[in-house]
Write a structure and sequence with these properties.
It contains 15 helices and 24 strands. The chain is α/β, with parallel strands linked by helices and 494 residues long. Bound molecules: adenosine-5'-triphosphate and magnesium ion (MG).
Length: 494
């Protein structure tokens, strides 16, 4: 696409220099620039992309996008925009032909349950015969074909998001479900996505280092509603889907949008489970919706998955999936890899692997397992190097909800795992080290220890790694397979 044409499609952009050069890619990382790329100089937290313009040009950048007041480099044409961060997604979207305008797009945000809800909704769509796509922490799926998300980010940078949307359009996808973090919303990584549906799980008090207060965090998430309300009309009603039982509801409901649907278990809501029955492997209920009722039997355990199912059902109904198909689609959903996945190697106690790595998610995963545990509830977990998690809160949650816990290592990166474990331990109240809990830094040894301690009727939860295939250490990323480690420990014990 010609630089001038690209600039024409981006609000506030002007060309400085030769607009007739051909642009084949949009790249904010100077180390990844290829010949033909437009290098977008984005001011980051650590460094300003404008400083890397010479590197980008050396690497073959055909043109650069710079902020309005920046110095234009000699010899290459430039696009000037008021904010390069804001323009990054717009430029990529424009280059790829605005893919999200050719799809119906649902964004899923919240503190917990985003990935699960995203894949549930995508599964229901596919099961109903609607070609669907999804992007999540775990995977990208395009028309049923899965690629691992190895980016380390749930919502990747804007150009990748647009590239995936383009792939979806090329593959004939009609509906896309995008897991959207609040970081991504703040950093405008999805600003050039024309959302039709903005769906919310819960909005707990996590990630509060990045967002100074809960109100800021909530405001960041709420931008998804504003994006949906103001995006291109695709002949489908713009809908916000809100959790009526969550503290976020009142604030989120103030954001104007054409249609607002609520779901809940304990409050009166548009989507509600009637005659809800829970088992240790799932649940069943009559689903009440604004368009009638359908029977749902879920093969994924835990009450929070009832919430996720209600949210996914509302997303699918808003995307015009027939009501009966929602019931049958949910029934065949087998869960997301590493989300309360059961490990069964013939042992006489239960072992679950779960991705829960925030205080809230850890507490809810334990609370879910409790009613179906005859014996003791044991948990192995650690806190990651990312400082936006409430470490003492995780210790507090384990102390409150487990009978025995082992604090261990989880993606420490350059931080000392012992220091991280101490931070977690600082939140533990009313429990004695050695008696009620242990600290075993080596994760393999910690899992072995928990399996060794388990007795018939006990439940062991291995929390934090879930689907991940690596452990992020100071020296780089090492292969990790939580399920294989757990199975080996069970075999060793036998
Ligand atoms: N609706 C929910 N409410 C509370 N906890 C939940 C909910 N859904 C899932 N969880 C817990 O959180 C864990 C993570 O679930 P999931 O991966 O779906 O969430 P996420 O929002 O995508 O998380 P992340 O922020 O890490 O991407 C689950 O394994 C479970 O323990
Ligand atoms: Mg996720």
């Amino acid at each position: 696409m010609l630089l001038a044409d690209l600039a024409r499609g981006v609000p506030g952009a002007t060309v400085d220099g030769d607009g007739s050069v051909d642009i084949t890619g949009v790249q904010p990382d100077s180390r990844r620039v290829k010949a033909g790329d437009l290098f977008v100089a984005v001011p980051g937290i650590r460094a300003d992309g404008h400083a890397f313009i010479p590197d980008a040009i050396t690497a073959g950048a055909t043109a650069v996008a710079i902020e309005s007041d920046a110095q234009k480099p000699d010899g290459v044409p430039a696009i000037r925009v008021p904010s390069t961060r804001g323009a990054l997604g717009e430029l990529a979207a424009e280059l790829y032909g605005r893919p999200s305008r050719h799809l119906r797009v649902a964004g899923i945000t919240g503190t917990d349950g985003k990935t699960t809800t995203t894949h549930m909704a995508e599964h229901v769509l596919q099961a109903s015969g609607i070609v669907a796509g999804a992007m999540s922490t775990v995977a990208y799926r395009v028309s049923g074909k899965e690629t691992d998300n190895t980016s380390g980010q749930t919502t990747t940078e804007a150009p990748q998001v647009q590239a995936w949307l383009k792939q979806m359009v090329d593959a004939g996808v009609r509906c896309a479900v995008i897991e959207t973090t609040s970081h991504a919303l703040v950093q405008e990584r999805v600003a050039a996505c024309d959302f039709d549906i903005a769906a919310f799980t819960n909005v707990g008090h996590d990630h509060l280092d990045y967002h100074a207060t809960w109100d800021d965090y909530l405001a960041a998430k709420a931008r998804l509603i504003d994006l949906a309300a103001s995006s291109a009309d695709k002949g489908i009603e713009k809908t916000a889907i809100l959790n009526r039982d969550d503290v976020s509801y009142a604030k989120l409901a103030q954001h104007p949008i054409s249609r607002r649907w609520s779901y809940g278990l304990t409050s009166e809501a548009d989507f509600q489970p009637l005659e809800l029955g829970m088992t240790d492997t799932g649940s069943h209920f009559r689903l009440k919706t604004p368009l009638g009722e359908t029977y749902v039997s879920l093969a994924v355990p835990a009450r929070f998955n009832v919430y996720n199912a209600l949210c996914a059902a509302a997303v699918c109904l808003a995307l015009e999936v027939p009501l009966e198909d929602i019931g049958t689609g949910l029934a065949s959903f087998e869960g997301v890899r590493g989300r309360l996945g059961r490990v069964d190697a013939g042992q006489d106690f239960r072992v679950f692997i779960d991705f829960a790595h925030s205080a809230g998610a850890l507490a809810s995963a334990l609370a879910e397992l409790r009613p179906f545990t005859q014996g003791r509830l044991l948990v192995v977990f650690g806190s990651t190097a990312r400082s936006d998690h409430d470490r003492p809160g995780m210790g507090r949650a384990a102390a409150q909800f487990a009978d025995f816990f082992i604090i261990t290592t989880d993606d420490p990166l350059a931080e000392d795992p012992v220091d991280i474990a101490r931070d977690v331990q600082s939140g533990v109240e009313g429990k004695a080290a050695g008696l009620d809990y242990e600290i075993v830094i080596d994760r393999r040894a910690a899992i072995r220890r928990a399996i060794e301690l388990a007795r018939p009727g006990d439940t062991v939860l291995l929390a934090g790694k879930g689907h991940e295939r690596t452990m992020q250490m100071a020296g780089g990323s090492e292969p990790w397979d939580e399920r294989a480690v757990a199975e080996a420990a069970i075999r060793e014990r036998a």
